[in-house]
Specification:
It comes from Cellulomonas iranensis. About 40% of the residues lie in helices and about 15% in strands. It is an alpha/beta fold. It has a six-stranded parallel beta sheet, sandwiched between helices. A six-stranded mixed beta sheet has the order 7-6-8-9-10-12, with helices on both faces. Helix 10 crosses helix 11.
Length: about 350
């Protein structure tokens, strides 16, 4: 039995008695054609069972209905909430989300953003390792929203982990710690630089000697080196860049028979799954990551809805959307964090 051929846009145009370009506008942007014509074309499309392909929709409307979420490490549990938040909000608005893992590589991230141009409508760029200039250049060619960065002219969401780290050092100082180490993150991490900048004056204000170590890769395997450096420095507490690094520190201290928190208190950042399950349970900075994902998606959708970048219809006429880009705030949305106190911190006893 012969398989019935799916109707094409040309079939719809012929049946409705209009040009192909008119049919495309009637189906994708009905406000740009006569109301009676749009109604006739849509009725014919429904009668014939016309279903436009994703590629056809992209060609006709200049849109792919796809958004990329670009992450430095998809295996890091902290990003799970971000994935859920952006995906849920984008799905509500008819978009499909794709993930891009840049593997903590500046080169891979830059190449990924170049390749995404024309393949997606926009991207949420999280914890970018690129310079401000590189991100600004990418934003000139692709609708971008950044998470945990501030780029002039580019909307963003900022989790106040620097403020959370200040809460952590205040907590440790209140417990009686006077010499504290900070085990920093990657050298290319903007968040790490921001935390260091916040911790130095906080330590001075509190009368605490801050010892900065690193950079460390934000993974569990980097924990032993960070733990050894903290012990060699003679500190009584170590603040880790993230929970994964803190997990590795706890494992190393346990292997060495170092009492936590009596000999060494440990804090993390992110409050990922498992932070309350390790022993001792980890004191850490909690961030509203899923809510940040939804906010980032909202900012990107607002930018796309007001995008006036001159995409073209199939007949070559420029789409005449009003450019509402200026209505999308470029000031980052700051989301507060809070310190979750658990058993890995206490008064120094040795």
């Amino acid at each position: 039995m012969a398989v019935r051929r799916q109707p094409t846009l040309r079939d719809i145009a012929a049946a409705a008695g209009v040009a192909v370009s008119t049919a495309s506008r009637a189906l994708t942007r009905p406000g740009r054609v006569n109301a009676d014509t749009a109604e006739r074309v849509m009725a014919v499309a429904k009668e014939l069972g016309y279903i436009p392909s994703a590629s056809a929709r992209a060609l006709l409307s200049g849109r792919t209905s796809t958004v990329a979420l670009v992450l430095p490490d998809v295996t890091n549990p902290v990003f799970f909430g971000l994935v859920r938040g952006t995906s849920a909000r984008l799905r509500e608005s008819g978009y499909v989300q794709v993930l891009a893992d840049t593997e903590e590589s500046v080169e891979v991230e830059a190449d990924t953003l170049r390749k995404l141009r024309g393949q997606v409508d926009g991207a949420v760029l999280a914890a970018s390792r690129l310079t401000d200039e590189q991100i600004a250049a990418a934003a000139a060619d692709l609708a971008l929203v950044v998470v945990n960065r501030t780029i002039p002219g580019t909307p963003g969401v900022l989790l106040d982990t620097a403020g959370g780290m200040v809460q952590a050092i205040e907590h440790l100082a209140a417990l009686g710690h006077t010499r504290i180490a900070y085990a920093g993150g990657p050298a290319t991490s903007w968040s790490d630089r921001r935390r260091r900048e916040a911790l130095v004056p906080a330590a001075e204000r509190l009368g605490v000697e801050l010892v900065v170590h690193g950079p460390y890769s934000p993974v569990r395997d980097s924990g032993p080196a960070a733990a050894d450096a903290a012990l060699a420095a003679g500190v009584t507490a170590v603040m880790a860049f993230n929970d994964l690094l803190a997990f590795g520190i706890l494992e190393r201290l346990d292997a060495l028979g170092v009492d936590v928190p009596g000999r060494m208190s440990v804090t993390g950042c992110d409050d990922i799954f498992g932070s309350d399950l390790v022993r001792p349970a980890l004191t850490t900075v909690r961030s509203p990551v899923e809510r940040a994902g939804r906010m980032a998606a909202d900012l990107l959708l607002a930018r796309l809805d007001g995008d006036g970048n001159g995409a073209h219809d199939a007949d070559g006429d420029a789409q005449d959307d009003a450019d509402a880009e200026g209505a999308v705030t470029a000031e980052p949305v700051l989301m507060p964090t809070d310190l979750v106190q658990r058993a890995s911190t206490g008064r120094p006893t040795a």
